[in-house]
């Protein structure tokens, strides 16, 4: 697969997936998104002051979230022992991201990690240990769960729920939650009510990622954070809380963690059609959302 770099507004690059019909990052800034929606909101600057740190990057992609995390940790505590697991479906994506013009946006030590992970799928050089597991994340997460891995931060970054519903289900979030440390934080760019409901069904509490200085007119949040109680999180606004009482909040389901995207979407559509919950359009009108 040949990936064609596309420039985002902060000068960093992303790819467009023909298979999923979406870009890997926000056009407002791929690198900025990695820091703002993942490294910063999971409080890595504070967590890096510990002697050890564990990270789980679900849908590694170009490796930007891992890279932003490593740059943050290196600035705070270069001696921190870091262990990372990345899950990625397509091995050609991280390979495409180590092209000279793309990888130089990161510092030299981080470039070395990205290159080794893309080419060999593992990196062992103290104080960092990293593994890139290739395949369907519903299966590749199994050995991570089996070893009792507990992440201090989870970056949850699949394509959108409508494009990749199999990774946004109640059942998959239940697996991911098992890999979250008691005081760990999960972050995702999605503010979807169905995603938030699935996180709640997995037993986590949820919060909102506040808007930054620049945002599109229709946006009310940059995404969602989740954690085990009683970790303090930015609470949802009344508007967001009401969103969870609409049909949009019916979560995706994949009982055996093996259904196709089409089957999951069909099941979801049937549940929404049969639901007595308020329509999402009614909620939008009430809050003047276009």
Explain what you see:
The chain is of the alpha/beta class. It has 13 helices and twelve strands. It has an eight-stranded mixed beta sheet, with helices on both faces. A two-stranded antiparallel ribbon has the order 1-2. Strand 3 (16-17) and strand 4 form a beta hairpin. It starts with 5 loop residues before the first strand and ends with a helix.
Write the layout of secondary structure elements.
Blueprint: E1 6-7, E2 13-14, E3 16-17, E4 22-23, H1 30-40, H2 44-47, E5 52-58, H3 64-76, E6 81-88, H4 92-96, H5 100-103, H6 108-120, E7 122-125, E8 128-134, H7 137-140, H8 142-146, E9 151-156, H9 170-178, E10 180-188, H10 193-201, E11 205-209, E12 223-227, H11 238-243, H12 261-274, H13 280-286
Name the descriptors.
single chain; 8-stranded mixed β-sheet; 290 residues; alpha/beta
Q: Can I get a quick summary?
A:
By secondary structure, the protein is α/β, with parallel strands linked by helices. It is built from 13 helices and twelve strands.
**Helix and strand string, N-terminal first?**
EEEEHHEHEHHHEEHHEHEHEEHHH
Anisotropy-based shape: globular
Major sheet characteristics: 8 strands, mixed
Number of separate helices: 13
Q: What class do helices, strands and sheet pairing give? A: alpha/beta
Helix content: 25-40%
Ends: how far apart? 37 Å
Number of strands: 12
Determine Rg (CA atoms, Å).
Answer: 18 Å
């Amino acid at each position: 697969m040949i990936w064609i770099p596309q420039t985002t507004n902060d000068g960093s690059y992303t790819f467009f997936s023909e298979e999923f019909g979406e870009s890997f990052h926000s056009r407002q800034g791929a690198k900025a998104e990695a820091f703002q929606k993942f490294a910063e909101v999971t409080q890595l600057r504070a967590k890096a002051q510990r002697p050890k740190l564990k990270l789980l990057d679900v849908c590694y992609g170009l490796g930007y979230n891992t890279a932003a995390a490593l740059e943050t940790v290196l600035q705070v505590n270069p001696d921190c022992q870091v262990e990372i697991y990345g899950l990625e479906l397509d091995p050609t994506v991280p390979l495409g991201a180590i092209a000279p013009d793309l990888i130089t946006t990161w510092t030299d030590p981080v470039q070395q990690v990205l290159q080794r992970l893309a080419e060999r799928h593992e990196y062992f050089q103290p104080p960092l240990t990293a593994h890139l597991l290739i395949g369907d994340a519903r299966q590749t997460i199994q050995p991570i769960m089996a070893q009792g891995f507990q992440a201090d931060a989870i970056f949850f970054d699949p394509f959108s729920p409508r494009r990749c519903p199999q990774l946004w289900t109640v059942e998959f979030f239940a697996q991911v939650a098992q890999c979250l440390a008691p005081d760990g934080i999960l972050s995702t760019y999605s503010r979807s009510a169905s995603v938030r409901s699935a996180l709640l069904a997995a037993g986590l509490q949820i919060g909102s990622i506040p808007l930054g200085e620049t945002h599109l007119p229709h946006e009310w949040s940059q995404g969602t954070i989740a954690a085990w109680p009683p970790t303090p999180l930015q609470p949802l606004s009344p508007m967001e809380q009401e969103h969870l009482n609409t049909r949009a909040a019916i979560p995706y389901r994949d009982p055996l963690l093996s259904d196709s995207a089409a089957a999951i979407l069909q099941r979801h559509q049937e549940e929404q059609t049969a639901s007595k919950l308020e329509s999402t359009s009614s909620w939008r009108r009430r809050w003047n959302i276009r």
